[in-house]
Amino acid sequence: MFRRPSIPAVAAGDVADDVYLLDVREDDEWAAGHAPGAVHVPMMQIPAFIDDIPEDRDVVVVCRAGGRSAQVVAFLQQNGRDRTINLDGGMQSWASAGRPMVSEDGGVPRVL
Question: Among residues 32, 63, 72, 73, which one is catalytic?
């Protein structure tokens, strides 16, 4: 009766190297480890930065496990960003798939 809208998702291994990857995790999570080339905008700041998010290309949204990013995808789609996709399993699946990661804190990249 009350179905949630389907959120498009992509597996970590299927994300193209040149995709616009939007990381919506908190600052400490970002610093510990993130995908090279990702753009960092914490989830609660998305409304203020919505105009900076491309409308003309695919945007893959990522968090730690996929819950927050799914909420951001729903919000962005409700606001005209139809080409937004959730990273299934978040950075946990990214790391498990052996995708590249970098850290901002000088340590070995890790997912918090």
Answer: 63
